[in-house]
Amino acid sequence: MRSNSFRRNRISRPIFNWARKIMPPISETEREAIDAGTVWWDGELFTGNPDWEQLLAMPPARLSQEEQAFMDGSVRELCSMVEDWTLNWRDRDLSPAVWDFMRKNKFFGMIIPKEFGGLGFSNTAHSEVVRTLSSASIVAGVTVMVPNSLGPGELLMHFGTDEQRKHWLPRLADGREIPCFGLTSPHAGSDAAAMTDTGVVEYGAWKGKKVLGLRLNFHKRYITLGPVASVMGLAFKMQDPENHLGRGEDLGITVALLPTDTKGVRHGDRHIPQFTFFQNGPLYGEDVFVPLDHILGGEEQIGQGWTMLMTALAAGRSISLPSQAAASAAMCARATGAYARVRTQFNVPIGFFEGIQEPLAELCGNAYLIDAARRTTLAALDEGHKPSVISAIMKYHATERMRRSVEHAMDIHGGKAIIDGPNNYMGAAYRAVPVGITVEGANILTRNLMIFGQGAIRSHPYMLEELLALSNEDREEGLDRFDDTFWKHVGHAFKTAGRSFLRGWTGGFLGPAPKGAAMARQWKKLSRYSAAFALLSDFALLTLGGSLKRREMISARLGDILAELYLLGAVLKRYETEGRFAEDKPIVDYLMQAGEARMGIAFRGVLDNLPSRPAAWLVRLIAFPWGVPNPVPSDRLITKLADILLKPSEQRDRLTPDLYLGQGHDAHPLKDLERAFRLVVDAAPIEKKMRARHISDAQEAHDMDLISDAEFTQLREAREAVEKVIAVDAFPMEEISATASQHKTKKPAARRKSPQRQAAE
Question: I want to staple 679 with a disulfide (CB 3.0 to 4.6 A). Which of 184, 685, 718, 720 is the partner?
Answer without folding.
Answer: 718
